[in-house]
Amino acid sequence: MNTFKRYFIEIAFNGTAYHGWQVQQNAVSVQEILNKALSVILRQNIETTGCGRTDTGVHATQLFAHFDLQEEVQPTTHKPQPTTYNFQASLNSLLPYEIAVRRIIEVADNAHARFDAVKRSYQYYIHFEKDPFRFGLSWLLRDKPDMELMNKAALIIMEYQDFSCFSKSNTQTFTNNCHITKAEWQNVDGGMIFYISADRFLRNMVRAIVGTLIQVGRKEISPEEVRKIILSKNRSNAGASVPACGLYLTSVEYPSRLKIRKME
Questions:
Q1: Residue extents of the structural domains in the chain
Q2: What is the pLDDT of residues 76-98, one digit of tens each?
Q3: Cα–Cα distance list, 59 to 1, 209, 230 (Å)
Q4: What CATH class is the domain 2-116?
Q5: Which of 3.30.70.660, 3.30.470.10, 3.40.630.30, 3.10.300.10 is the CATH number of 119-251?
Q6: pTM: predicted TM-score of the whole model, two decimal places
Q7: Is-catalytic flag, 55?
Q8: Is 236 left (phi over 0), alpha (psi -120 to 50) or beta?
Q9: Which of 7, 11, 158, 254 makes a 20 to 30 Å CA pair with 261?
Q10: One of 55, 116, 131, 189 is an active-site residue; which one?
Q11: What is the rounded distance in angstroms from the CA atom of residue 160 to the CA atom of residue 142?
Protein backbone atom coordinates (compact mmCIF):
# COMPACT_ATOMS: atom_id res chain seq x y z
CA MET A 1 0.00 0.00 0.00
CA ASN A 2 1.35 3.43 -0.99
CA THR A 3 0.62 6.86 0.37
CA PHE A 4 2.10 10.27 -0.42
CA LYS A 5 3.38 13.36 1.26
CA ARG A 6 3.20 16.81 -0.30
CA TYR A 7 6.04 19.28 -0.17
CA PHE A 8 6.47 22.94 -1.09
CA ILE A 9 9.84 23.78 -2.61
CA GLU A 10 11.12 27.36 -2.70
CA ILE A 11 13.59 28.21 -5.44
CA ALA A 12 15.36 31.21 -6.95
CA PHE A 13 16.70 31.37 -10.47
CA ASN A 14 18.37 33.47 -13.10
CA GLY A 15 16.05 32.99 -16.06
CA THR A 16 18.35 34.24 -18.83
CA ALA A 17 19.08 30.79 -20.25
CA TYR A 18 15.56 29.39 -19.84
CA HIS A 19 12.27 29.62 -21.68
CA GLY A 20 10.39 30.53 -18.54
CA TRP A 21 9.33 28.40 -15.60
CA GLN A 22 6.78 26.11 -17.24
CA VAL A 23 7.70 22.94 -19.13
CA GLN A 24 7.88 23.53 -22.89
CA GLN A 25 7.80 20.95 -25.68
CA ASN A 26 10.78 22.24 -27.64
CA ALA A 27 12.67 24.45 -25.19
CA VAL A 28 14.44 24.11 -21.84
CA SER A 29 12.55 25.47 -18.83
CA VAL A 30 13.32 25.82 -15.12
CA GLN A 31 10.52 23.40 -14.22
CA GLU A 32 11.92 20.70 -16.51
CA ILE A 33 15.37 20.95 -14.93
CA LEU A 34 13.93 20.88 -11.40
CA ASN A 35 11.67 17.90 -12.14
CA LYS A 36 14.60 15.89 -13.50
CA ALA A 37 16.81 16.66 -10.50
CA LEU A 38 14.08 15.74 -8.00
CA SER A 39 13.34 12.50 -9.88
CA VAL A 40 17.00 11.45 -9.81
CA ILE A 41 17.46 12.04 -6.09
CA LEU A 42 14.09 10.68 -4.96
CA ARG A 43 14.25 7.73 -7.38
CA GLN A 44 10.72 8.17 -8.66
CA ASN A 45 9.04 10.34 -11.27
CA ILE A 46 8.44 13.79 -9.76
CA GLU A 47 6.33 16.46 -11.42
CA THR A 48 6.13 19.85 -9.76
CA THR A 49 3.24 22.33 -9.87
CA GLY A 50 4.34 25.95 -9.79
CA CYS A 51 2.74 29.00 -8.20
CA GLY A 52 2.47 30.52 -11.67
CA ARG A 53 4.48 30.91 -14.83
CA THR A 54 7.23 33.28 -15.92
CA ASP A 55 8.13 34.38 -19.44
CA THR A 56 11.35 33.52 -21.21
CA GLY A 57 14.25 35.40 -19.62
CA VAL A 58 12.36 36.47 -16.48
CA HIS A 59 14.07 35.85 -13.11
CA ALA A 60 12.77 34.87 -9.67
CA THR A 61 14.16 35.52 -6.22
CA GLN A 62 11.28 33.50 -4.80
CA LEU A 63 9.09 30.96 -6.56
CA PHE A 64 7.17 28.15 -4.88
CA ALA A 65 6.14 24.83 -6.37
CA HIS A 66 4.71 21.70 -4.83
CA PHE A 67 5.33 18.02 -5.49
CA ASP A 68 4.10 14.71 -4.13
CA LEU A 69 6.41 11.98 -2.88
CA GLN A 70 4.99 8.48 -3.01
CA GLU A 71 5.96 6.50 0.09
CA GLU A 72 5.57 2.88 1.14
CA VAL A 73 3.86 2.28 4.47
CA GLN A 74 6.63 -0.17 5.37
CA PRO A 75 9.59 0.95 3.30
CA THR A 76 12.14 -1.69 2.41
CA THR A 77 14.80 0.75 1.22
CA HIS A 78 16.04 4.02 2.59
CA LYS A 79 15.11 7.11 0.59
CA PRO A 80 16.24 10.66 1.35
CA GLN A 81 13.64 12.80 3.07
CA PRO A 82 13.03 16.11 1.27
CA THR A 83 12.96 18.15 4.48
CA THR A 84 16.51 17.20 5.53
CA TYR A 85 19.45 19.52 4.95
CA ASN A 86 21.38 16.78 3.15
CA PHE A 87 18.57 16.41 0.63
CA GLN A 88 18.56 20.15 -0.10
CA ALA A 89 22.35 20.19 -0.44
CA SER A 90 22.28 17.19 -2.77
CA LEU A 91 19.58 18.76 -4.90
CA ASN A 92 21.48 22.03 -5.18
CA SER A 93 24.64 20.19 -6.20
CA LEU A 94 22.72 18.52 -9.03
CA LEU A 95 21.01 21.68 -10.29
CA PRO A 96 22.80 24.14 -12.59
CA TYR A 97 24.27 27.27 -10.99
CA GLU A 98 21.37 29.45 -12.26
CA ILE A 99 18.84 27.58 -10.07
CA ALA A 100 19.00 27.38 -6.26
CA VAL A 101 16.74 25.61 -3.76
CA ARG A 102 16.07 27.77 -0.70
CA ARG A 103 13.69 25.59 1.33
CA ILE A 104 11.67 22.39 1.22
CA ILE A 105 8.62 22.31 3.50
CA GLU A 106 6.24 19.45 4.23
CA VAL A 107 2.63 20.68 3.91
CA ALA A 108 -0.91 19.32 4.07
CA ASP A 109 -1.75 16.98 1.21
CA ASN A 110 -4.33 19.43 -0.18
CA ALA A 111 -2.04 22.50 -0.14
CA HIS A 112 -1.58 23.98 -3.61
CA ALA A 113 1.31 26.21 -4.68
CA ARG A 114 -0.77 28.05 -7.28
CA PHE A 115 -4.34 28.14 -6.03
CA ASP A 116 -3.52 28.83 -2.36
CA ALA A 117 -1.27 31.82 -3.11
CA VAL A 118 -2.91 35.04 -1.93
CA LYS A 119 -0.33 37.61 -3.05
CA ARG A 120 2.44 37.82 -5.62
CA SER A 121 5.01 40.59 -5.99
CA TYR A 122 7.26 41.58 -8.86
CA GLN A 123 10.02 44.12 -9.33
CA TYR A 124 11.22 45.62 -12.61
CA TYR A 125 14.77 47.01 -12.79
CA ILE A 126 15.96 49.81 -15.07
CA HIS A 127 19.44 51.38 -15.31
CA PHE A 128 20.57 54.42 -17.27
CA GLU A 129 24.25 53.87 -18.06
CA LYS A 130 26.01 50.94 -19.66
CA ASP A 131 27.00 48.51 -16.91
CA PRO A 132 28.40 45.03 -17.65
CA PHE A 133 27.34 43.84 -14.20
CA ARG A 134 23.69 44.65 -14.90
CA PHE A 135 23.67 43.16 -18.40
CA GLY A 136 20.87 40.59 -18.63
CA LEU A 137 19.64 41.52 -15.15
CA SER A 138 18.20 44.99 -15.79
CA TRP A 139 16.92 47.03 -18.75
CA LEU A 140 19.27 49.72 -20.07
CA LEU A 141 17.19 52.83 -20.75
CA ARG A 142 19.16 55.75 -22.20
CA ASP A 143 16.80 58.60 -21.29
CA LYS A 144 15.53 58.93 -17.72
CA PRO A 145 11.71 59.15 -17.68
CA ASP A 146 9.64 61.35 -15.37
CA MET A 147 9.08 59.19 -12.28
CA GLU A 148 6.49 61.55 -10.76
CA LEU A 149 4.25 61.20 -13.82
CA MET A 150 4.70 57.43 -13.84
CA ASN A 151 3.69 57.18 -10.20
CA LYS A 152 0.56 59.25 -10.92
CA ALA A 153 -0.35 56.78 -13.65
CA ALA A 154 0.46 53.84 -11.36
CA LEU A 155 -2.07 55.14 -8.81
CA ILE A 156 -4.68 55.31 -11.57
CA ILE A 157 -4.01 51.68 -12.50
CA MET A 158 -4.71 50.66 -8.91
CA GLU A 159 -8.26 52.03 -9.22
CA TYR A 160 -9.22 49.26 -11.68
CA GLN A 161 -9.50 45.48 -11.68
CA ASP A 162 -10.08 44.42 -15.29
CA PHE A 163 -6.68 44.43 -16.97
CA SER A 164 -7.53 42.90 -20.33
CA CYS A 165 -5.55 45.70 -21.99
CA PHE A 166 -2.34 44.43 -20.38
CA SER A 167 -2.91 40.73 -21.04
CA LYS A 168 -1.46 38.57 -23.76
CA SER A 169 -4.28 37.47 -26.07
CA ASN A 170 -5.68 33.92 -26.20
CA THR A 171 -4.61 33.00 -22.67
CA GLN A 172 -7.86 31.12 -21.88
CA THR A 173 -8.17 32.66 -18.43
CA PHE A 174 -11.51 32.58 -16.64
CA THR A 175 -11.25 36.28 -15.75
CA ASN A 176 -8.89 39.18 -16.40
CA ASN A 177 -9.66 40.77 -13.04
CA CYS A 178 -6.78 41.30 -10.61
CA HIS A 179 -6.61 43.19 -7.33
CA ILE A 180 -3.44 45.30 -7.31
CA THR A 181 -2.32 46.35 -3.82
CA LYS A 182 0.92 48.12 -4.72
CA ALA A 183 2.25 49.87 -7.83
CA GLU A 184 5.11 52.27 -7.27
CA TRP A 185 8.37 53.48 -8.83
CA GLN A 186 11.40 54.24 -6.68
CA ASN A 187 14.79 55.71 -7.54
CA VAL A 188 17.90 53.66 -6.85
CA ASP A 189 21.55 54.37 -7.52
CA GLY A 190 21.89 54.66 -11.28
CA GLY A 191 18.38 53.49 -12.04
CA MET A 192 14.77 52.86 -11.03
CA ILE A 193 12.72 49.95 -9.70
CA PHE A 194 9.01 49.37 -10.21
CA TYR A 195 7.27 47.49 -7.38
CA ILE A 196 3.94 45.82 -8.01
CA SER A 197 1.87 43.38 -5.93
CA ALA A 198 -1.49 41.72 -6.61
CA ASP A 199 -3.51 38.64 -5.82
CA ARG A 200 -2.82 37.36 -9.34
CA PHE A 201 -1.25 38.47 -12.62
CA LEU A 202 -2.13 37.86 -16.25
CA ARG A 203 0.38 36.67 -18.81
CA ASN A 204 2.75 39.47 -19.82
CA MET A 205 0.83 41.87 -17.55
CA VAL A 206 3.72 43.43 -15.62
CA ARG A 207 5.86 43.99 -18.70
CA ALA A 208 2.91 45.62 -20.50
CA ILE A 209 2.17 47.86 -17.51
CA VAL A 210 5.81 48.96 -17.31
CA GLY A 211 5.85 49.66 -21.05
CA THR A 212 2.74 51.82 -20.71
CA LEU A 213 4.13 53.69 -17.71
CA ILE A 214 7.36 54.36 -19.60
CA GLN A 215 5.24 56.03 -22.29
CA VAL A 216 3.83 58.26 -19.56
CA GLY A 217 7.30 58.98 -18.24
CA ARG A 218 8.46 59.97 -21.72
CA LYS A 219 5.41 62.25 -21.99
CA GLU A 220 4.11 60.37 -25.01
CA ILE A 221 0.79 59.98 -23.20
CA SER A 222 -0.62 61.62 -20.07
CA PRO A 223 -1.40 59.76 -16.84
CA GLU A 224 -5.14 60.30 -17.49
CA GLU A 225 -4.88 58.55 -20.86
CA VAL A 226 -4.09 55.36 -18.96
CA ARG A 227 -7.75 55.32 -17.90
CA LYS A 228 -8.86 55.16 -21.54
CA ILE A 229 -6.39 52.36 -22.22
CA ILE A 230 -7.70 50.28 -19.32
CA LEU A 231 -11.35 50.89 -20.17
CA SER A 232 -10.73 49.94 -23.81
CA LYS A 233 -9.75 46.39 -22.72
CA ASN A 234 -7.66 46.33 -25.89
CA ARG A 235 -4.03 45.16 -25.68
CA SER A 236 -3.08 47.12 -28.81
CA ASN A 237 -3.86 50.40 -27.01
CA ALA A 238 -1.34 49.78 -24.23
CA GLY A 239 2.42 50.20 -24.43
CA ALA A 240 4.85 47.65 -25.80
CA SER A 241 6.11 44.95 -23.44
CA VAL A 242 9.48 45.86 -21.98
CA PRO A 243 12.39 43.37 -22.13
CA ALA A 244 12.15 40.34 -19.85
CA CYS A 245 15.66 40.79 -18.42
CA GLY A 246 14.56 43.43 -15.90
CA LEU A 247 11.64 41.49 -14.41
CA TYR A 248 11.82 39.49 -11.17
CA LEU A 249 9.20 37.51 -9.28
CA THR A 250 10.22 38.48 -5.75
CA SER A 251 7.57 37.19 -3.35
CA VAL A 252 4.70 34.71 -3.14
CA GLU A 253 2.56 34.74 0.00
CA TYR A 254 0.22 32.11 1.42
CA PRO A 255 -2.44 32.04 4.15
CA SER A 256 -1.19 31.44 7.69
CA ARG A 257 -2.78 27.99 7.84
CA LEU A 258 -0.11 26.68 5.44
CA LYS A 259 2.67 27.89 7.76
CA ILE A 260 4.84 29.07 4.88
CA ARG A 261 6.67 31.68 6.89
CA LYS A 262 9.01 34.24 5.38
CA MET A 263 12.69 33.48 5.73
CA GLU A 264 14.53 35.74 8.14
A1: 2-116, 119-251
A2: 455 667 777 688 999 999 999 99
A3: 41, 17, 27
A4: alpha beta
A5: 3.30.70.660
A6: 0.92
A7: yes
A8: alpha
A9: 158
A10: 55
A11: 31
